[in-house]
Amino acid sequence: MTLQSAIEAMLFAVGAPITVERLKELTGETEEALRAAAEDLGKKLEGDDSGIQLIQIEDGYQLCTKPEAGELVKRALELKKAPPLSKATLEVLAIIAYNQPVTRSFIEQVRGIDSSYIVASLADKGLICEKGQLDAPGRPVLFGTTDAFLRCFGLASLADLPKAELPLPEETAAEETPQ
User: Fold this and answer.
1) Gap between the Cα atoms of 24 and 37, Å rounded
2) If both were cysteines, with which of 42, 81, 106, 149 could 145 make a disulfide (CB 3.0 to 4.6 Å apart)?
3) For the segment 39-54, what is each residue's pLDDT rounded down to a tens digit?
4) Which residue ranges form the domains of the chain, and what is each CATH number?
5) 140 cis-preceded (ω within 30 degrees of 0)
């Protein structure tokens, strides 16, 4: 069995991202050999002969359905289309993604409204998870995004997030001051 075939089999069986470090442990191969084999596997799957693709998430790889086959797979699995995320949910998700790790009180301070239901909903959907606790009174939980968040938004890593174009406080104040 080739290294490329071994990677393909492991990714298929696991159904979740596997880091390069974990692949090194499993195969005993070097990082360079694994990355080259993964690149070859990705090229092999790019053609029209395959309904799956290899994607890179953070420092790992995962097999997933090609977008053009997604509807067929959903019907085959009899899955209903997930409802779109509300504006409020996307707002909370953006606050977490751009500032993580964050506490619920930070989210609520930014939004100016209770966000506990939305935070719980995002955690249930697997888009965010607990990332520890803040070393402060009450030890509030810190939240951050997950690999599922990266997959859902087609990102390889958080570095791929679009740059936030927010006005600086002094710019906002200057715009509001009549001259």
Assistant:
1) 12
2) 149
3) 999 999 988 788 999 9
4) 3-76 (1.10.10.10), 87-170 (1.10.10.10)
5) no
